[in-house]
Amino acid sequence: MKPRILIDLRHYSKALFSADLMAGLVVGIVALPLAIAFAIAASPGGDAEHTIGPGIGIITAIVAGLIISLFGGSRVQIGGPTGAFIVIIYGVVAKFGLSGLLVATVLAGILLVLMGLFRLGSVIKFIPYPIVVGFTSGIALTIFTTQVKDLLGLTIEGGVPAAFIDKWACYFRNITTLQWDAIIVSVVSIAIIVASARWMKRLPGSLLAIIVTTAVVYFTNQSGLTHIATIGDRFGAITASLPSITAFQLDWAALFTDAEGHFTLTTLNALLPTAFVIAILGAIESLLSATVADGVTGDHHDSNQELIGQGIANIVAPFFGGIPATGAIARTMTNINNGARTCIAGVVHALVLLVIFLLAMPLAAYIPMPTLAGVLVVVSYNMSQWRTFAQLTHRPKSDVVVLLVTFVLTVVFDLTIAIELGLVLACLLFMRRMAEVSQLSIFTKEIDPNADPVADIPLHEEALIIPEGVEVYEINGPFFFGVANRFEEMTAEMQDHPAIRIIRMRRVPFIDSTGVHNLENLCLMSQRDGTQIILSGVQPKVRAVLERAGFPALIGEENICSHITLALDRAAALRQKK
């Protein structure tokens, strides 16, 4: 494994730099409004320890975006804050403050690096699609819910509740406080973004919406025609300066001491599940984005190196006040569509954001809150995948259950619970399906190859005669704990004790420890009953496992046969001796 940028720089040229420079400029401008919007949406507010300023989103995009491009495994991936993390960040900051978010993000970064080092990148890709759609759609609805207040210009005393149902109850109680001028700004912002996507695809619609509505609202607010809330009204004056290491300014004592001032790891233990969710969500989103990019560019990313790059970014960015970051599909596609050729485009994107941050950040104070709400409504709509969600409801019932459970848990309860329970549920359903695929058969007189349900062509072979006193047990499919227990129950129910049992394992691709244990028990019980066990058609990987478990010594090396005909010949020879 090595960072992709080292490979790209081997044959770098002026032509490549020109393409990367243009793509980096465009995607840097596109990332600006999204970075601000995501940071503000993830901020509970109340005091300095629980407030994420608008500049934090840009700092995250600068620091994390630069590191992901330098250390990642994808040629065109653009990293930064994304909408998927809004719900998680909001909950962590509300409960543990900014210092808690820093710890959770760094822990998540460490987990991502470990995933990459242990080459789990390919495993992450096998997370069931209904889970991904379920929590992505759930996050989209949750993001939309958080923006209703600013979208309608509602006046709510004491803040908005954190819980989904409580939020909507609060909105309905305060619906009479809506401001029509705020609604107009929101609707106009959404209309500009939608129209730009259709008619001006190279121009960032969110940036255009921010420029137009900010200019109009500035003059209408100054003239007294409107009283629309802006970022400056909520966060005060915004200054621009190079990001400093802010970790040492946070309230660390509150994280690692109890009410009596004693050292404790209680808070750290409480943050571990959140760190796990940040890591899993970041891994899924970044690898999904890289895979989509590969499909467009024809390239092939290194998933493990990408996880390492994402991990390093999430370890470093929090020390500059940054929030969790991952690969962003929308910005990555913008990068590709504007001609990006290598990782240098991502580096340029980060530098463009840095220049904008230093020169134009104070102007962000004039951006209307309804405009940012409109930007995030479009983001949540694009995330919702409602068409895919509707299609999945017509799939097998098990997939529908996973989809709906993950969605409901994400929206009503907590994303941490949703991902953990969704993964557990998916694993259980997977094991059930594997158990259904695996079949157990018993043959006592003959084996007819032409009746093989797996064969897809006529064989026209003669039946194999099974000697008297011999039974053949055939296992089709993985011999893991679910099937192994069923196999043990089936053999326990057999009242007879044949002289020889042949266990045919030609279609057993792997065997787990439970399967080995149950097979060993069968051999021991058979020895007590005077029954000889012969294994037939054992695949190399399975044979290696059985050899490590001592099966050659248990049943005899000569009783492990490579083919059923050899096993039947061996059984016939043993019968003749008796």
Describe what is shown at a glance.
This protein has 578 residues and is α/β, with parallel strands linked by helices.
Question: What report would you give on this structure?
Answer:
This protein is α/β, with parallel strands linked by helices and 578 residues long. It has helices at residues 4-8, 14-41, 54-71, 86-117, 121-124, 129-152, 164-173, 180-199, 205-223, 231-235, 253-256, 266-297, 303-316, 329-337, 344-360, 369-384, 386-392, 397-413, 415-437, 481-493, 513-529, 540-548, 551-555, 564-577; strands spanning 79-80, 326-327, 439-443, 446-447, 464-465, 470-476, 500-507, 532-536, 560-561. Helices cover 63% and strands 6% of the residues. The strands form three sheets. It has a five-stranded mixed sheet, with helices on both faces. It has a two-stranded antiparallel sheet with strand order 1-2. Strands 4-5 form a two-stranded antiparallel ribbon. α2 packs antiparallel against α14.
